[in-house]
Amino acid sequence: MSKRVIGGTIFTTLVLSSALFGFFNIVAYLFLIVGIYEGFKLFMIKKDIIALVYTFLFMFGVLALVEINNFSYFLIMIIMGTIMLNDAFAYYWGMKYGKTKFSTISPNKSIEGMIGGIVTAFIGMCFFLWIGYTFIT
Predict the structure, then answer these.
(1) Contact 94, 112 (CB under 8 A)
(2) CA–CA dist 68, 137 (Å, integer)
(3) What is d(CA 21, CA 34) in angstroms, rounded to the nearest whole number?
(4) What's the rounded Cα separation, in Å, for the pair 95 and 113?
(5) Has residue 63 got a pLDDT over 60?
(6) What is the pLDDT of residues 6-21, one digit of tens each?
């Protein structure tokens, strides 16, 4: 089993259990600290500005989640599902149609994969929201 699958499984389990048992803010701040450290470390090694952009986007995303005082478990599920869809389909579309290289951080990333992942994740997020507001609320 790849490190990516194991890491994703641990991350998902930790986030969902922290949301269910009420210690989400502690886990969010922990991921924020680790994410900022890893982003700056990657920037220092690769000298790629995209690493800093991703670091700040990650930082603001985590802070936004922490500041939502009245979040629901459904919101966490939508966020996790959207991230997983983006990751899986960016890989799929990149392998199928990817030609234009995106970054030096990960040389196999392509602009076509990134766009395909974003579009697929957006469609999936809209579907998740429709299901949630139609059948759950």
Answers:
(1) yes
(2) 19
(3) 22
(4) 7
(5) yes
(6) 666 676 677 667 766 7
Query: b/e map of 97-110 (b: 16 or more CB within 10 Å)?
Result: ebeeebbeeeeebb
Residue 55 CB-half CA count within 13 A? 18
Instruction: Give the pLDDT mean for 92-103.
Output: 84
Alpha-helical runs (H) found in 1-137 = 3-21, 24-46, 49-67, 73-97, 111-131
Range 125-135 average pLDDT: 79
- For residue 81, what are the CA distances in angstroms to 36, 46, 48, 88, 115? 23, 30, 28, 11, 17
Compute the average pLDDT of residues 87-108. Answer: 82
